[in-house]
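Hey L., structure's done. Input below.
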Amino acid sequence: MNWDQIEGKWKQFTGSARERWGKLTDDDFDTAAGKKENLVGRIQERYGIAKDEAEKQADEWSAALKESAREVSARMRR
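Output:
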């Protein structure tokens, strides 16, 4: 899923993000506001990891969202 879509529906995706990054606070999610660079910064800070690793995690998460959306769409067409 692209980040414009994530940003536009951020409230819908925060549950999934909370499952992925349990150390992030409500304030972290509010600050991130669906923007990749903000989320990456919060992940970096809370988990003490390099920016590259935080970006990788964010990209993997957004790819998983895209795959889930495809699966739901395929099931609905059946």
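DSSP finds five helices and no strands in the chain. The helical segments are 3-8, 10-20, 26-32, 36-47, 51-77.

-- N.
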